[in-house]
Amino acid sequence: MTREELFNIHNEMTKTAFEIMKKKNADYAGGGSDPFANFRRAEALGICSTEQAFLVRLTDKMSRLSTFANKGKLDVEDETVYDTLLDMINYSVLLAAFIKDKK
User: What is the mean pLDDT of each run of 10 residues along the chain (103 residues)?
Assistant: First the structure.
């Protein structure tokens, strides 16, 4: 793979992740304007802090990738490794935005 090919993959993935975030965030925000609403719910329910809620979701995705690395495949066919990686991009962006918003 060339550097240009790598950069093309990066560009494609981030564009795709952005489109997914726009759609999913509208669903998870419950129709409201708070883009972090579903993560704040974990804290409101006394489960964990909002920051930890982001990390739980990232850990879920890491677990899927770990399973893939160990087995060479995923049993759930409707979410690919690529989908999992896109979710990780979005959870990372959401956490970064949440931290920035808190300052």
Answer: 97 97 84 88 96 97 95 88 96 97 89
Sign for the pseudo-dihedral over CA of 86, 95, 68, 3:
positive
Count of domains for the chain: 1
86: enclosing H helix or E strand? helix 81-102
**Domain range for 25:** 3-102
Tokens of 3: 């550097």
Q: What's the CA gap between 44 and 42, in Å, rounded?
A: 6
Say how far apart CA 63 and CA 103 lie, in whole Å: 31
72 φ/ψ angles, rounded to the nearest 5 degrees: 80, 5
The pLDDT score that the predictor gives to residue 28 is 81
How much is the CA Rg of the chain, to the nearest whole Å?
Answer: 15
